[in-house]
Specification:
Elements: H1 3-12, H2 25-52, E1 54-57, E2 61-66, H3 69-72, H4 77-109, H5 113-124, H6 131-142, H7 147-154, H8 166-190, H9 194-202, H10 207-218, H11 220-234, H12 239-244, H13 252-261, H14 266-300
Antiparallel strand pairs: 1-2
Helix pairs in contact: 2-14, 4-8, 4-11, 8-11, 9-10, 11-14, 13-14
Length: 301
């Protein structure tokens, strides 16, 4: 084939137009999930918002007239204590998960592949067990004649009341949600080159100084993500506080459950649910903003 014929065939082939608008493939790929959110999240959420602005009726569930009394009562002392207790227990659970999860995440991030596989298996395996089963296990351990009190009696000490207290609730929540703290932290620590730690040690930094000035600042995005996950699901927990906690000192999810299925006060339960969602969204946007700032600092460093 001659050079002229080859040039003509190449010229005849269609060339890609880089200025043309690309096909919206992303829209086609995201449409199933968008439909899923629309049907199973946005529509029920709108229904909850609709119930929250109506009056309660013992016979008809709700009345047609609109009102904001369901939101005004959230400022009563009982509900303020309810949300305060919920946020406080969620904060304590998050702090304990950070203290327990950071060393474990660092160990797994720097472990050998075989040790890493075993550690991840032991970390994730409890998630395969039902929450109810794990909570009943803690009832056996923390009960009046459980393993903890039997050990205290064996040591000559007085038994303590652990079950049906806020301490038992925090223990149960930490046991369930600790993997949600470890996994984001581990992923963030894995991105930190070990050479930075070696350089800090060569410059005379101790391990604590290396952690405070190298590891902790660079792992802030994972820390914020883990705190957001643990805190948001802790304040919305129901099974663990219901089985391990005191019925007089309940959390927000327990109050919502009782008002839906016991008193059938759906408007009041809807306002409580929306208030809890609003708190979670505020925390989420704050965490995303803090994560973005931390990422910018990491790229600048």
């Amino acid at each position: 084939m001659s050079i002229q014929a080859t040039s003509a065939s190449l010229a005849a082939e269609p060339r890609p137009t880089y200025g043309a608008k690309a096909r919206p493939v992303w829209a086609l790929l995201a449409s199933p999930y968008a439909l899923f959110l629309l049907v199973l999240l946005i529509v029920p959420f709108a229904n909850v918002a609709f119930f929250s602005v109506h009056s309660y009726s013992p016979t008809k569930i709700l009345l047609p007239e609109l009102t904001f009394d369901n939101y005004r009562k959230l400022f009563d002392l009982y509900y303020l204590r309810l949300f305060g207790r919920t946020l406080r227990l969620g904060l304590i659970t998050t702090v304990v998960c950070v203290l327990l999860g950071y060393p474990l995440a660092y160990f797994l991030a720097r472990a050998r592949p075989r040790v890493l596989a075993i550690g991840l298996f032991l970390l994730i395996m409890p998630l395969m067990v039902s929450t109810v089963i794990r909570v009943f296990g803690w009832i056996v351990i923390l009960g009046r004649k459980g393993l903890v009190n039997q050990a205290l009696v064996g040591l000559g000490l007085e038994p303590v009341k652990l079950l049906y207290t806020e301490t038992a609730v925090v223990i149960g929540l930490v046991n369930i949600f600790l993997p949600f703290m470890v996994l984001p932290l581990m992923a963030s620590i894995e991105r930190i080159p070990p050479s930075l730690e070696e350089a800090a040690q060569n410059l005379g930094a101790t391990w604590h100084q290396t952690f405070a000035r190298v590891i902790l600042p660079l792992s802030v995005p994972g820390l914020i993500s883990g705190c957001l996950l643990v805190y948001s699901i802790s304040i919305s927990a129901f099974v663990t506080p219901a089985l391990l906690g005191n019925s007089r000192e309940r959390m927000a999810a327990q109050q919502i459950y009782d008002e839906v299925l016991v008193s059938f006060n759906w408007p009041s339960a809807s306002s409580l649910a929306l208030a809890l969602v609003a708190l979670t969204l505020v925390l989420m946007f704050w965490a995303l903003f803090a994560t973005r700032r931390a990422g910018r600092r990491e790229r600048a460093a």
